[in-house]
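testing teh design pipeline on a random one, pls ignore if ur not involved
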């Protein structure tokens, strides 16, 4: 994070330190909505309250929850429901796939030749807000809609029409490669989001590069194999779709189930997919942490004073010399954060296995309990980014009329919802609080149901979940602490 004002004067280090300490005064301001909001009670009271809610929910789950097939609840097939029959008759899926592909092509064109103002360019809102925020939340709410709304599936289908043999694949997908391509794509996307300030041109090149990467994967291994394990959006949406009340066994077959029941059927079969989930958690937390005053103090004050003999006492010159160091510092944090999350998670899982008395090793248990992390990853993401979705997402209606920022008004909607939707600061904070606590309670519940499958007897299952409860409480406290910190500037 770069300071908003370039420092001036030889005493700038002390001034920055004093300013940072002032920002960390007890009257903190929740930062998730970009403006100051003083919490009605101290942060520690929220943390104790959240911990108490998790502890109470753990006790209720341990006492009342049931294992086995009854845990998932009843399922009802909706394949022949009237709305779905009409959707098939009207070929709505093909229409949605076509519109999704058209949106991708329009985004690439507008990014490359349209306005450089990110707020006036269709591509920026479509990709960063609708595709990366709106679509994940829609999949978690309704079901895995990725096969219908993933624009790169539409691109692969178009390639298959033009070159029928292209989507069959040249080689079998290597089993040991697993979900590594999707994991690397997520890491690259997180790095770009955190460490670049690309405008529309940079986004256009990114979309072109990822489109080329996807087509290479499809040609090399075939569309089914690549979208099953290699495509970032497909893997992400499939994981979140397990949270939804609608399940899609295959195209056209729809099941109604209890929300979250899909997590009990989800199997994380390899370390790369576990790391994918942990990276979702870690990258979101790091994105929030980088905007806070403590993060700015760690680097621009504390490290600056330590490096002063090498970077010089002139703060202006030191600032420019430390910028490359900051990129290394933040990039290293992005790589180390999921490793730290993994180490803490493995410790909790190892203790769970010892207390539960099961026969499986730590690695196998870590994969079995991985679905319980997905509700937490989702609510972290929503707590940090849903204000942006509300503020910027509705503006897509106006951008459709003027996608290139050339003052067109193709559909008469150019001035529609230009201000987006705003929510009061106190409502945002308490919504974030409810999301994080609620997501962790769901995680506790899913982990407990999985323990029924793995460990003998209710008592052993409950004991095994004490380390997982501690893990969930730690995640909750850290997430709320980040949201309660003041912005750096």
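output:
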């Amino acid at each position: 994070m770069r300071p908003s004002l370039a420092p001036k004067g030889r005493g700038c280090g002390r001034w920055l330190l004093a300013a940072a300490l002032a920002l960390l005064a007890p009257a903190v301001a929740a930062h998730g909505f970009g403006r100051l909001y003083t919490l009605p009670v101290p942060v520690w009271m929220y943390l104790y309250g959240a911990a108490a809610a998790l502890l109470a929910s753990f006790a209720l789950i341990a006492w009342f929850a049931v294992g086995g097939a009854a845990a998932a609840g009843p399922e009802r097939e909706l394949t022949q429901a009237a709305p779905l029959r009409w959707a098939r008759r009207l070929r709505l899926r093909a229409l949605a796939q076509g519109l999704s592909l058209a949106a991708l092509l329009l985004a690439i064109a507008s990014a490359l030749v349209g306005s450089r103002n990110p707020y006036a360019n269709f591509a920026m809102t479509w990709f960063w807000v609708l595709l990366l925020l709106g679509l994940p939340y829609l999949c978690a709410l309704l079901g895995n809609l990725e096969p219908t709304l993933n624009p790169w599936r539409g691109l692969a289908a178009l390639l298959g029409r033009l070159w029928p043999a292209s989507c069959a694949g040249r080689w079998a997908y290597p089993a040991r490669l697993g979900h590594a391509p999707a994991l690397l794509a997520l890491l690259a996307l997180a790095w770009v989001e955190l460490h670049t300030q690309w405008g529309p041109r940079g986004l256009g090149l990114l979309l072109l590069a990822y489109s080329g990467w996807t087509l290479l994967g499809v040609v090399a291994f075939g569309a089914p194999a690549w979208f099953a394990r290699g495509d970032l959006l497909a893997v992400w949406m499939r994981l979140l779709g397990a949270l939804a009340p609608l399940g899609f066994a295959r195209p056209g077959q729809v099941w109604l189930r209890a929300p979250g029941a899909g997590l009990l059927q989800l199997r994380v079969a390899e370390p790369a997919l576990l790391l994918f989930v942990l990276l979702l958690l870690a990258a979101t937390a790091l994105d929030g942490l980088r905007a806070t005053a403590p993060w700015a103090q760690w680097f621009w004050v504390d490290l600056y004073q330590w490096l002063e003999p090498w970077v010089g006492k002139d703060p202006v010159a030191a600032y420019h010399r430390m910028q490359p160091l900051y990129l290394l510092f933040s990039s290293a944090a992005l790589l180390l954060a999921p490793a730290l999350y993994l180490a803490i998670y493995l410790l909790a899982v190892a203790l769970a296995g010892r207390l539960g008395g099961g026969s499986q090793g730590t690695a196998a248990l870590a994969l079995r309990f991985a679905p319980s992390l997905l509700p937490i990853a989702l609510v972290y993401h929503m707590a940090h980014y849903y204000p942006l979705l509300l503020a910027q997402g509705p503006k897509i209606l106006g951008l459709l009329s003027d996608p290139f920022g050339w003052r067109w008004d193709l559909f008469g909607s150019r001035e529609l919802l230009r201000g987006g939707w705003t929510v009061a600061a106190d409502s945002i904070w308490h919504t974030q609080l409810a999301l994080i606590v609620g997501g962790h309670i769901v995680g506790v519940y899913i982990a407990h149901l999985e323990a029924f499958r793995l460990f003998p007897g209710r008592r052993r299952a409950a004991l095994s979940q004490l380390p997982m409860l501690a893990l969930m409480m730690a995640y909750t406290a850290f997430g709320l602490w980040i949201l309660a910190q003041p912005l750096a500037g």
